[in-house]
Design a protein that fits this description.
By secondary structure, this protein is of the alpha/beta class. It has a domain of about 120 residues. The chain is built from five helices and nine strands; from the N terminus they run αββββαβββαβααβ. Strands 1-5-8-9 form a four-stranded mixed β-sheet. Strands 2-3-4 form a three-stranded antiparallel β-sheet. Strands 6-7 form a two-stranded antiparallel sheet. α4 packs across α5. The longest helix is centred in the C-terminal third of the chain and has 16 residues. It is globular. The two termini are about 25 Å apart.
Length: about 180
């Protein structure tokens, strides 16, 4: 179910979900950027933490499919919000004087004032439902702020017996400021 008009968004799945697209400047056209993929957190070398994108192109040839933190720092984003719907995307190395260094900071440095991340491994079905609820609140008739939309989505999940456990929805947090 799409919540945006076809001409208002970009859906990059399969081969289109590439590192080349991510660093091309195309993402700077969008207010909300959502990555539903895997996060690779490198606690020894945080600059190597990455988001996994397509490792092969449409011809089946291998390509670099990792969008690394050091590359994210160099993006020029005009997005109001980045959502990293990936396991442990909000974790990283605690560096003295710097704080937690992982994937959140690079997106903020690249221009996104707010990033939604997760703190632990996720259940795919629960995450899909949480995101459906979240975007329904964010983009639907209520037009809630990201913080309020995330809270409302979590409450809706909690009210469902299937998703009651915080394991299914508690990992997600909003970092930064939405204005």
């Amino acid at each position: 179910m799409s919540m945006v008009q076809d001409n208002d968004g970009l859906e990059a799945v399969d081969f289109k979900a590439s590192r080349a697209l991510a660093i091309s400047g195309e993402l700077s056209k969008y207010r909300i950027i959502h990555f539903a993929t895997h996060a690779l957190i490198d606690n020894e070398h945080p600059e190597l933490s990455a988001i996994a994108l397509s490792a092969v192109n449409e011809r089946g040839e291998a390509q670099d499919g990792l969008l690394r933190a050091r590359e994210i720092f160099n993006l020029k984003l005009s997005a109001d919000l980045v959502v990293l719907s990936a396991c442990r995307s909000g974790t990283g190395k605690d560096v003295a004087g710097e704080g937690l260094v992982g994937l959140t900071r690079p997106f903020m440095y690249a221009g996104a004032p707010a990033v939604i991340v997760s703190l632990w491994s996720l259940d795919d079905h629960a995450t899909a439902e949480l995101m459906r609820q979240f975007y329904g609140q964010l983009l639907g008739p209520n037009k809630l702020s990201p913080a309020a939309a995330l809270r409302a989505a979590k409450i809706r999940m909690w009210r469902e017996s299937r998703w009651r456990s915080p394991y299914f929805w508690g990992a997600f947090q909003l970092q930064g400021d939405w204005r």
